[in-house]
Amino acid sequence: MNISSVAIGQYMPGESLMHRLDPRSKIALSLVVVIALFIVKSAWAYAALGALIIGAVLASRVPIKMVIRGLRPLLFVMVLTFGLHLFMDPGEPIFRIGKIVATDRGLAQGLITVARLSLLIMATSIVTLTTSPIAFTDGLESLLKPLSFVGVPAHELAMMMTIALRFIPTLLEETDKIMKAQMARGADFESGNIAKRARAMIPILVPLFVSAFRRADELAMAMEARCYRGGQGRTRLRQLRMGALDVAALTLVTAYAVLVVVVL
Q1: What are the pLDDT tens digits along the chain (264 aa)?
Q2: Residues 115 and 246 in one domain
């Protein structure tokens, strides 16, 4: 496991077009794209939305290889999902492996599912790669603030989601260190069948959970030492402001997504 292959949760500072957008705009834009991905069905629609996401990657000036490498942690899930659709969905037979039959509808549905997952990961990765954790928290809290009138703790939810995203790379890096340390002591994580490899991963979980709880305790103590008391009365160094660039981006991307959903 290589920490450089994980895009979600990381932040790359920059001055690109995507970096200059208000975090609320980026969250809203990613939500529009995600909704469109779940609505469309045709290959042309996925190609059109994929072109939009690639354009966002180019506008962010983030290396596209880094965004694509961010798909690696979900490669096993994608292959498994594709295989389940290929061999379990009804349709016209394509080929057989013993008694297992691959169908044309299963192939099409498997490809659509893999494309949807890939584009979802890329769209959400762009938001985290171009938005600092503090800005992301402020933007998410601002979007959730109207729900506070019905008792929803907007600040606490935004803080929890931001901390979770922030610690994804940290926990993966910790897992990598634990695996390398145990491999240096003779542990084998690659040979044997799936059941054996799954059992070999059990010794990793205990030190990983201990490390995660220790980091959570240290974070809580650091926040208390700085007199953190939640969102009540909290001030911000930088106030969020929607500009002409945000309005233009929201208008164009929303119109594009609606056009793709309606036409394609």
Answers
A1: 444 455 566 788 888 889 999 999 999 999 999 999 999 888 889 999 999 999 999 999 888 888 887 787 778 888 888 888 888 888 888 888 878 888 888 888 888 889 899 999 888 888 888 988 778 878 888 888 887 777 777 777 877 877 877 777 778 788 888 888 888 887 777 776 767 777 777 778 888 888 888 888 888 898 888 877 766 666 666 777 888 999 999 999 999 999 999 988
A2: yes
On whether the CB atoms of residues 70 and 122 are closer than 8 A, the answer is yes
| Residue 140 domain flag | no
* Tokens standing for residue 166: 């922030």
Measured CA to CA, the distance from residue 127 to residue 23 in angstroms comes to: 8
Q: What is the pTM of this model?
A: 0.74
Asked if the structure places residue 32 within a domain, the reply is yes
Establish if 189 belongs to a structural domain.
yes
- Are residues 206 and 77 both part of a single domain? no
Rounded distance between C-alpha atoms, residue 157 and residue 163, angstroms = 10
Same domain, 13 and 112: yes
